[in-house]
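Can you give me the bound-state structure? Components:
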Amino acid sequence: MTEIPVSLPDYVSQLRANWHVLSDPASLKAAGLTVQPATPAVLARLPAVATGVVAAATAAGANPLQIVKYAELVNGKVAAIVDDGSAIGDVTLAHFVVTVITAGALPAATVTYQLAARSQGAAASSATG
Amino acid sequence: MAITLATLTATWTDNNNIKHQDTVSAIGPAEVPDPDVPVVILLHGMGGSSNDLSQPGLTGFTYDMTAPIVSPLDLGLQPNPGVGCYGFSTDSKLNPAPGGWQPFLVGAGYITVNYSQIEPWGSLAQVNGQPSDPVRQLDAIISCIITTFPGRRIAFVTHSRGGLLLRAWLVQHGSDPAVRPRLGTAVQLAPPNHGSELANIVGALEVTVAAAAAELLGDPAAMPWLYLLLAGAIGDPAIGDMTVGSGFLTWLAGNEPGNEAGALLELHTFGGTSPTLFRWHLYVFTPQSVVPIITWDGSGLVVSYHWSAWDVGFPVRNYAGDVGAILQAPPEIVPGSGDILVTAASAALPWQAGYHVHPLNHGQPLWDPGVQGEALPVLRNAWGSPPVQVAASWAVWSQPASVGAGTSFSITVTVTNVGTTTWPAGCVAGSDNGFGKRIWGTATATMASSVPRGGSATVTLSLTAPSSQGNQPVSVFVTAPGGQQLERGQPFQAILVVGWMAADLTLDTGSPAAAPGSALTSWADTRYQHVIYLSPDQHVHELYYPLAGGTWAGGDLTADTGSARAARGSALTSWADTRYQHVIYLSADQHVYELYRSVG
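Here's the bound-state model for the whole set.
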C-alpha cells in the first residue's frame, strides 16, 4: 500500500507570523482590541491552564519561564492580548499553543491560547524570523 | 457492441411438479462469424443474481483498495482547532464501476448466457433422488443452448456456489450423450468445493465487528453489512450445503466420476487469499491542526486553523484477518489462507486441470482484470467444434461396488450407437481398463443384429477381477466386425477389488443361528469346503460350499443321523481322510460321538 507524504507548515514560523499581526497597532485598533502590558498583576490574572502549561515546560533546575506574550482566541475570535513588546523574532522565546474544548463538541466552545515565554533573567536577543 | 444473439426459452418442471418457463438472452458481439467460438454460461454465487457477473458494482463489494493512502490528509482551513480523532471511513468504491465477466467476455468475442438462478439461497442437494430445482433449471438452459447453437462447445464461468451448481449438474447430466461432446472448459472463481466454515466466520465477525463498531461509534448497529448478510443467512439451505462435510458435498464428491470428470470438462479453479473486504481509515488530527493562523482581512482579525489528519489505519482495517490472531479463527478469514468466505485450498479439486491463487477477497474475482486475463486462455481451450464421431458407442451398465481379487462375475451392458452410421451385425462388446488393457479378462459378447444410429443393444459380459487390489477402472468398448474399435463416449468406472471378502453364511443358507459361544470346526475335501457349529438346541449343523462353484447350503447333521444332542459348550473337531470326513463332539452324558460320511 502506498502512502503519500504531505509536508506540514512550520509550527514556530506560523506563531511568529501571528504575533506580527497581533502587534500591528492599526489592525488592533480596527478590531477594537487593546493590548495589555505584561505586568505581574496582569499575568496573575491569566488562566491557570495557560500559566500551568508554561510552568510545566520549565526544565528542572532552570529559571522559571515567564509569559511575555499572550493571545486568547475564543471561538475563532481574538478576545485578549498581553504583550511586553519584545521582539517577535527573539530566539529565546518559547512558543506555546494550548487548546481547550469546553463543551466537548466542535465547534461550540473552543479557546486557544497562543503564548510566548522567556526564562526569567534571560536577556532578549533579536533574530529574524 | 453487445447484442442479443438469441432468446432462449427454457421450460422445466420443479420438484413440486410446477412448470417453469425461463427466458434467457444469449449475448454476444454483433458478429460471431467464427463457428468455433463457444457459448459461456455464467453462474453466480449464493444469494446473488446475474448482475454479479454483468455489473459487479451492484454487489457492494467493489472497494478500491489500490488507491494510495494520503497521510496526512489536508482538510483545509477551519474556524476552530482540530483535536483528537477527525473521523473514519472505508475505502471508496471503484469509480467508474468495474466491468463484469459478461461484458469482458463479449468484448473478447464470446457468446454468453447469464441468468439469475432459481432459489439462490436454496439447497443444491437432490430431492428424493432427483436433481434439485437449480440443477433442473441449468439443465434446461443447456439443452436450449445445444439446440440453438449447434456445433458450438459450452464453457462455464462460475462464482462461489455457482461452482457447486456446475458440479452438481455435471454429476447428474454431464455424461449425457447429447451433452458430453459439447462440454469445453470451466473457470471456477472462489468455489467452496470442500466447504466453508461459514458459521464460525459469522461468529468471528460478530466479535470483531461488534468490538470495532462499539469502539468507533458506541453503536453495534453500525456493523458492516457483510456480517449482517451472513448472520441473516446462516440458517439457509445454501449455507447448509456449503458447510464443511455437509451431506451435499459428500454426495458430490462420492458421485463425481473422479479423474474422469476431468475428461468431461477442463476445469480451472481460482482461489483467493485476502480476507480484506476494504481498508479502514482512521484519521487523527496532527498537532498543527491546533495552531491558529491569524490574519487581517481588511476589516478585522480572522482566526483559522489549517486542519490535517494522519491516517493511522485501524486495528480492524484488516478486521477479519486481525481477529484471526486473537481467536481460533477459521482459515477462511486468515490472511494468506482464505478470501473471507472460502479458503484457497477449498477451491482445489483433484480432477482440475489448473489451480490458480490470487491475493483477492471473495468478491474481487468478479471484476479483477488479473483473473480475467488468466482465465481467457482457459476459455480459449473451449474453442473448436465437437468432433463428428462416425462410429461411436456409449455404454451403460450396473456393476458391483466391490469384487474379490480373481473372482468372476458378469455385468449386463446396454451399448448405444451414438455415431452417425449403423453398426453392422457381428459387432463385439468387450471390457478393458479404459485405456486398452484387458485387466478384466478377454471375454466378449457378440451383437447378432445390426444397431442403427441411436439404437441400443444389451449384452452380458463375463469379467474376472484382476489380482491387483484397490479401485480398478473398467470400461466397455465395441469392436466392428473388421476388428476396428469404435470411439467410446462413456467414462470408465471403478470397481473396488478386495482380498478378503465377507458373507453371512447363516443368512445365505437360511440355517439357524449358532448357540452363544458355539465351537466351530471346518475342513475341505476334494469337492467341498465345510463348516460345523452347534445351534441353541444342541444340534450339530453343517454349512458347505462346492469348490467347483455354486452357493452355500446347510444341513442338520443331528437330525439327519438321529444321534445324541451335543452337550452345552461341547468342543468340535473334524478332519477328512481319503475316504471319509469326520466330525467329533461330546454329548450331555460325556460320550464322544462321531458323525462321518464318505468324501464327496
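A couple of observations. The interface with chain B takes residues 1-6, 8-9, 11, 14-15, 17-18, 21-22, 24, 27, 30-31, 33, 71, 73, 75-78, 97, 99, 101, 106-107, 110, 112, 114 of chain A (CB under 8 Å). The longest strand of chain A covers residues 65-74.
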